[in-house]
Amino acid sequence: MHSCNLDIEINKLSKIEGHADLDIRIRNGKLEEVTLKVMENVRFFNQAVQGKSFASVPQLVSRICGTCSIAHLTACIEAVEKTLGVVPSAQTVLLRKLTMYSLMIRDHALHLYFFVLPDLFGIDSILDLADDKKELIHEALHVKEAGNNLSKLVAGRAVHAPYEQVGGFSHEIDPSRVPILISELKKVRPSVLKLMDIFYNCSWKLERKTNFVAIATPDFSFLEGKIKSTSGSVIEEKDYWDHLHNVVLPYSQASGFQFEGKEYMVGALARMNLNKESLHPSTQKDAAKYLAVFPSDNIFHNNLAQAIEILHSLDHSIELLRSGEFKKEEPAKPTRQSGEGVGAIEAPRGTLYYWMAIDEGRVRYLNLVIPTAQNLINMRGDIKKIVEDACASGVFPDELEEKIRREAEKIIRAYDPCMSCASHFLRVNLN
After folding, report:
1. Phi, psi for residue 154 in degrees, rounded to 5
2. H-helix or E-strand containing 216?
3. Strand order of the sheet with strand 350-359?
4. Which of 4, 310, 315, 354 stands 20 to 30 A from 321 (CA)?
5. Which is the CATH superfamily of the domain at 45-326+334-374+418-422?
């Protein structure tokens, strides 16, 4: 070990959703401090929706994030429905599954192809592969396009989808477009298998024991299920707040969270560790080699888990589109105008909670718990381990800073964080 003093500042981390800074302080070869700061402006969505009609709020909160807009829309709709006693039809539930699958396909593809592969190939941008691996660029665009087109068919748009609403969908699926979309989803499947193989053979490794938490759904649809943890907890979605504890991070625009008093991780790796047996049979068959990796404590396997989730989303979407008989339906109606309820879904980056109170049809209270905010403490712990390992590795001081910068950014990107979303859960009291 070399004795050195370093102050490392990474301003505006690249290839993530939103903005974050990382400060690291090393004295005499020992780590003293790691500060991961969410630098997004707080936009007061919790306050902005107060007094608004329950029917308009889901579209408002979808503007929290363009990338995750469907996740916010769906979670908020579920919270409204639980609050007002709305029971969606079987067709509505099926369409919501397809909507969530469309999000997972395009969002995971964005992260894996455009944010992670450049690190894997030692380049700045996936566009730098144009000379010797240009097929990967084409595959990236086609996989993303397949997710976008599924969103357009079912929900009207890929971003800020207009069709999904409280109680149902405002438009029916055009049956003439279904066979075309099924063909497109099947066509990109080999590309996703190739992507899984890339991340399966990736040598990156950082193992650190932590607790994984996710909603375990019976068909891996990211919607209704039980909240489970690798520590053995099984709880109802409505009881989530009894198990989460807010932790103030004074240097950040977002708070962190603990689950039952301990740091934890949400996201694709958590879902794969807790629920891989619920994946689509075709996914389990063709991804058997890759699924054998899980359960895993290697944070970089979050990338592999996301690739597997793309395949599952393709396979289950194809099945649902083939079997569905879609017809025009009237939205299910509320059975009451006041109450409290919780909406909980699995967004691309992990469990997303909406806790809502409605009085006479208007929102009185809204609290959000965002996946990235839940991961902040665990992310910081992983960065600390990277720095400590680097300091103990015998790397010369003039090489240490570059090594830490490179490895820290890779770890943060492995979480696929959305800083834009993380800064918005805050409840602010204005006097």
Report:
1. -90, -45
2. strand 211-216
3. 339-347, 350-359, 362-369
4. 354
5. Cytochrome-c3 Hydrogenase, chain B (1.10.645.10)
Q: Supply the mean pLDDT for the chain.
A: 86
- The number of C-alpha atoms within 13 Å of 183 and in the hemisphere containing its C-beta is 5
d(CA 379, CA 372) in angstroms, rounded, equals 9
Distance separating alpha carbons of residues 159 and 329, to the nearest angstrom: 23
Tell me which DSSP letter residue 334 carries.
P
How many angstroms separate the CA atoms of 165 and 126, rounded?
36
Tell me what the mean pLDDT of segment 408-413 comes to: 86
Q: What is the pLDDT of residues 272-323, one digit of tens each?
A: 999 999 999 999 999 999 999 999 999 999 999 999 999 999 999 999 999 8
Let me know how long the chain is: 431
**Segments making up each domain of the chain, as ranges:** 45-326+334-374+418-422
Of 110-114, 205-209, 371-375, 394-398, least confident by mean pLDDT is: 394-398
| Inter-CA distances, 120 with 33, 115, 249, 309, Å | 28, 10, 31, 20
Nearest of 273, 278, 274, 240 to residue 259 by alpha carbon: 240
